[in-house]
């Protein structure tokens, strides 16, 4: 179990911009990993309405349950590892193990008993060190759509923002207002 603050900048890319960045940073196909995010919320979108999100991510045969909630700077991420059985039970029956995520949900007055499974989003991800952060290139597939995105995860918000804006400027990529993946998923599924 862990908690950390996530500070990241993101920008939607065109397919061509995505390909240019892959080529520029010499990303080989074997370096791209597959991951799947499974999203959960209450039937009335209690988490979404609080600016929070709950997911189970499958990556490299591991299962991580993560709650993201707004923090003073960035997002507070509360994460706990799940077994494959715990993952299956959450997806199929909406039953989650106790732990830090459950504790955080209780503080938000969200009962784990009211959490439902909403669907999944698959991502082909390349990630590597860039300046003082982690640069991520994502190709996501969900609900008969796909999109491309660049994310930049940092510890220092000001330096990170400057580095990210410089990257976009250097490659002629316009700044685009970009929602996070779960918001894009809900937009596609429910036309929010």
Please give a structural write-up.
The protein has 192 residues and is α+β, with helices and mostly antiparallel strands. The protein has one domain: Hypothetical Protein Pfu-838710-001 (Beta Barrel), CATH 2.40.320.10. It is built from six helices and eight strands. The chain has helices at residues 15-24, 46-49, 84-93, 100-107, 157-170, 181-190, and strands at residues 2-13, 33-41, 53-59, 62-70, 75-82, 116-130, 133-142, 145-154. It has an eight-stranded antiparallel barrel, surrounded by five helices. The radius of gyration is 17 Å and the shape is globular. The two termini are 32 Å apart.
Going by CATH, the architecture would be Beta Barrel
Average pLDDT works out at 96
Largest sheet: 8 strands, antiparallel, barrel
**Low-pLDDT ranges:** none
N- and C-termini, Cα separation: 32 Å
Q: List the helices and strands in order.
A: EHEHEEEHHEEEHH
Strand element count: 8
Count of discrete structural domains: 1
- Order of strands, main sheet, comes to 1-5-4-3-2-6-7-8
- The CATH superfamily bears the name Hypothetical Protein Pfu-838710-001
Fold-level CATH name: Hypothetical Protein Pfu-838710-001
Protein structure class: alpha+beta
Give the class-level CATH name: Mainly Beta
How big a fraction of the residues is strand? 35-45%
**Helix percentage:** 25-40%
What is the rounded Rg?
17 Å
Short note summarizing the structure:
This protein is α+β, with helices and mostly antiparallel strands and 192 residues long. The protein is built from six helices and eight strands, in the order E-H-E-H-E-E-E-H-H-E-E-E-H-H.
């Amino acid at each position: 179990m862990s908690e950390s603050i996530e500070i990241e900048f993101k920008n939607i890319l065109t397919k061509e911009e995505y390909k240019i960045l892959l080529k520029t940073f010499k990303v080989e196909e074997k370096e791209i990993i597959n991951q799947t995010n499974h999203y959960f919320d209450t039937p009335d979108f209690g988490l979404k309405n609080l600016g929070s999100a709950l997911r189970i991510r499958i990556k490299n045969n591991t299962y991580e349950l993560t709650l993201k909630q707004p923090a003073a700077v960035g997002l507070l991420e509360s994460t706990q590892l799940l077994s494959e059985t715990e993952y299956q039970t959450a997806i199929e029956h909406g039953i989650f193990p106790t732990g830090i995520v459950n504790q955080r949900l209780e503080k938000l007055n969200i009962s784990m008993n009211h959490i439902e499974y909403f669907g999944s989003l698959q991502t082909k991800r390349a990630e590597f060190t860039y300046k003082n952060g982690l640069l991520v290139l994502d190709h996501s597939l969900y609900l008969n759509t796909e999109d491309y995105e660049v994310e930049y995860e940092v510890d220092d918000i000001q330096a990170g923002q400057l580095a990210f804006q410089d990257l976009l400027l250097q490659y002629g990529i316009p700044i685009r207002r970009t929602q996070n993946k779960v918001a894009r998923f809900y937009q596609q599924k429910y036309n929010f």
